């Protein structure tokens, strides 16, 4: 009968070794566990406890601070904006990253393009916020976004040449409604017409403007002068063409009879214009409102209506490169023979992309999307820097409200702690989903 003593001795040795290994592992893990407890577990526990007390921290208020997140207007705005961020920003950044990753595989300069797109990741949120604060400047001469927008608008819509120009009471013009002006009396052939205006700064006059002059009457025509009735330094006479006064070059003039436009003219560089007498004699001249409407200054990107999409645009500019690099790495691992087989079978590029490339990239797209969802729940810097004070309430998000509630002029640490706990509760489901997905991937 074999002896069981060696077997028992081996079991004891293995147990002793396992215990020693656990002790060594615990010794190595202890510093990390202490740091984790001090920097993560304790702050979370304290925030939960502090959220149940009032502003001073002396009186227990239960869930009142959490109810304020629903009843307070600024807090409701922050929650709503966070939901907008959560839906739009990760989806747009991931979609752009996918498009960039697929397209850059087909061009020679794809590496250089990836470098340019990824470069914003090297910029801090604060620096990006300052950049886009200038990009979204309302003045088209300073803000790039409005400079482009105004340029496109003016390409398809006629711009005004003399905004705010108007006649004086002594001038032979009167308001005609809608911003237009008409002559007080019908015009006659052989009698020069005077169309004086004021309200245009000399520095804003057209570059081609020249000193105004009165043309000599000509047979079969009605002639006149449209000019800026203003002399620098004074000394000019109202309703008279003085030598130092400039013609309103480009001013549009219409002859109107019985409510219908019968002729049109445009003032020359010296303000002179000519109309056919056979159609104009006895009609009144009208300066249409298109001459005087305010110039288009673009979109108020940082106003209450567009500030949140504008800040999201800055975020996408920064993080689309991150999505592109991760998706590009996943795309490099896609078997090329599958793509070629689909093309041989007659699939076009869109079908290959939709039915093969995207399904194979689904795990990578999930990683990128979940990472960006966690990231946008913490966004603070961009909103704080880009949104001006007048629109910061409209662009408010939970992280910004957490800062304002905890460290603002009217600080309430109870509300601030409740927002912090809410942010944690929003992040936890996303993290659990990510962990489960990673475990499923590991089992395959």
Question: How would you describe this protein?
Answer:
This protein folds into 2 domains: 64-150 and 301-443, MetI-like fold, CATH 1.10.3720.10; 173-291, no CATH class. Helices cover 52% and strands 10% of the residues. It has a 5-stranded antiparallel beta sheet, with no helix packed on it. It has a 3-stranded mixed beta sheet with strand order 3-4-7. The mean pLDDT is 85. With 444 residues, the chain is of the alpha+beta class. It has 14 helices and 8 strands. Keywords: Cell membrane, Membrane, Transmembrane, Transmembrane helix, Transport. Pfam families: BPD_transp_1 (PF00528). This is Sugar ABC transporter permease. Residues 79-434 form the ABC transmembrane type-1 domain.
């Amino acid at each position: 009968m074999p002896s069981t003593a060696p077997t028992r001795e081996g079991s004891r040795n293995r147990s002793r070794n396992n215990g020693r290994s656990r002790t060594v592992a615990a010794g190595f893990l202890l510093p990390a566990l202490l740091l984790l407890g001090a920097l993560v577990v304790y702050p979370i526990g304290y925030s939960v406890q502090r959220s149940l007390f009032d502003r001073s921290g002396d009186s227990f208020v239960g869930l009142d601070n959490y109810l304020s997140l629903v009843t307070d207007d600024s807090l409701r705005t922050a929650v709503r904006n966070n939901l907008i961020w959560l839906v739009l920003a990760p989806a747009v950044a991931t979609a752009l990253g996918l498009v960039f990753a697929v397209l850059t595989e087909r061009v020679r300069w794809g590496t250089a393009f990836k470098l340019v797109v990824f470069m914003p990741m090297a910029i801090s949120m604060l620096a990006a916020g300052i950049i886009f604060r200038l990009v979204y400047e309302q003045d088209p001469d300073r803000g790039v976004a409005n400079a482009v927008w105004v340029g496109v608008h003016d390409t398809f819509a006629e711009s005004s040449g003399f905004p705010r120009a108007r006649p004086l009471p002594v001038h032979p013009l009167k308001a005609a409604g809608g911003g237009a002006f008409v002559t007080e009396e019908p015009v006659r052939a052989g009698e020069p017409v005077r169309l004086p205006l004021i309200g245009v700064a000399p520095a804003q006059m057209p570059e081609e403007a020249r000193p105004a002059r009165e043309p000599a009457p000509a047979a079969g025509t009605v002639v006149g002068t449209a000019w800026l009735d203003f002399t620098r330094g004074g000394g000019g006479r109202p309703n008279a063409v003085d030598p130092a006064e400039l013609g309103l070059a480009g001013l549009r003039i219409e002859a109107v009879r019985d409510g219908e436009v019968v002729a049109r003219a445009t003032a020359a560089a010296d303000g002179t214009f000519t109309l056919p007498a056979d159609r104009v004699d006895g009609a009144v001249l009208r300066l249409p409102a298109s001459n005087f409407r305010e110039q288009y200054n673009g979109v108020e990107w940082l106003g209450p209506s567009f500030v949140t999409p504008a800040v999201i645009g800055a975020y996408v500019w920064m993080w689309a490169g991150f999505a592109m690099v991760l998706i590009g790495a996943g795309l490099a691992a896609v078997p090329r023979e599958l793509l070629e087989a689909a093309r041989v079978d007659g699939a076009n590029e869109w079908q290959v992309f939709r039915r093969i490339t995207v399904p194979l990239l689904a795990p990578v797209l999930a990683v990128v999307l979940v990472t960006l969802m966690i990231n946008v729940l913490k966004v603070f810097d961009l909103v704080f820097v880009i949104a001006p004070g007048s629109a910061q309430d409209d662009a408010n998000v939970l992280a910004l409200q957490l800062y304002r509630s905890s460290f603002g002029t009217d600080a309430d640490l109870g509300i601030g702690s409740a927002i912090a706990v809410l942010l944690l509760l929003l992040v936890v489901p996303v993290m659990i989903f990510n962990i489960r997905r990673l475990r499923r991937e590991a089992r395959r």
